[in-house]
Amino acid sequence: MSTNPLSPSVLLQGMADALPTHPQGDTTSDLSSSHDALALFAHACMASLGFRLMGFDESKNDEAKCRDLAPRLPENWNASFNNCSFVYAHSQSALRFVLKVDRMGGKAEIRGLAIDDDRIARVEVTSKDFISNGALPVRIALTAESTEDRSDLPQKLQAVFINEARITDLASLIKINIIQKLLPSLQKEGYEESPDDRAAREDAEGAGRRPPRQPAMPDPMPQPAQPNPYGGPVDPPPRRPVPAGDFPPPDFEDELEVNRPPRGFPPGASPFGNLGADDLNPPGLGPNDPFRPSLGGLPRPGGHRGMHPTFEDIGGGGIGGDPYDPQAPPGARFDPLGPGGMPRLGGRRPGGGNNPYGGFGGFGGDII
Fold first, then answer.
1. Considering the domain boundaries, does residue 156 fall inside one?
2. Cα separation of 204 and 100, whole Å?
3. CB–CB of 52/21 below 8 Å?
4. What is the rounded distance in angstroms from the CA atom of residue 208 to the CA atom of residue 202?
5. Angle at 59 (CA atoms; ends 53, 62), nearest 5 degrees
6. Domains in the chain: how many in total?
7. If we measure between CA atoms, which residue out of 169, 173, 160 comes closest to residue 133?
8. pLDDT in tens, 236-278
9. Of 198, 214, 229, at which residue does a domain stop?
10. d(CA 70, CA 260)
């Protein structure tokens, strides 16, 4: 069974092999900060997957020196404070790759770039989530003959990390966010890409080709308060829409003011006043005076008298006279029908008496 090149044991051994050779008489530490530990770990991931170190500056090629020292790193690999840079090549690609580890406060950003591709892959990690500062600095042991003893170096480097699970998590972050984006479909025994992240990358590329969505605009008008959103018995009935017909009114601008009530009138008022309000009422029984003591008495207040002239207008009740028949006796009713049932313009017939609705006694009383 093949070994996973990004397993914790393989990466810890790669970190131990990459630490520079301890110079004779040098008393400084070999790994002193959490930032250097993260940078060394990222380099071990790249080297374990077949990336070949070309130098530390993309404008300068130090491949010959790096090849002679491999798998060791040169002494100046972490010369820049809070910034480490590596330049790689790979047999499965014609591109060169740049890996940078920058420290920003308590966090570190790992960035990868394929030169001439202009797509930056990055991942941000919090140092204290992975590195145990209590295990730093790390020093390579020396024998009595002042030679290096690296046998216990993987154990010392393992103590730099919080636990083995954290090593696996950090390797997975670098794999998913850096390596799979710099060199997709990389072929290495024991190495497998994450299918979930490959599908996510394809979805992200497809989303980049789609036009952006227009953000929903908020309603500028505040919503009215609704104490009873489900309605109640005192709520007004819903307004019925006006039938559109053949010529529907405009929807946006009512230029002809079709849907606007007449100006100068309160809501619900008619612009024609009370015209025609009592045209169909019986004579003398308008809506304003249904309980008058006598229909032939004094004239009632108001203007309109219904569909027939009343007694006050034509001398009913002994007041005034008949303008159509001046010789009719006082109190006679107006008869619109003449002899033989023919309509006439005026006149009264005797026999009506004081009965406002006409009489049957006498001569030709009106029957209404």
1. yes
2. 24
3. no
4. 10
5. 40
6. 2
7. 160
8. 666 656 665 666 655 556 667 666 666 666 666 666 666 666 6
9. 198
10. 89
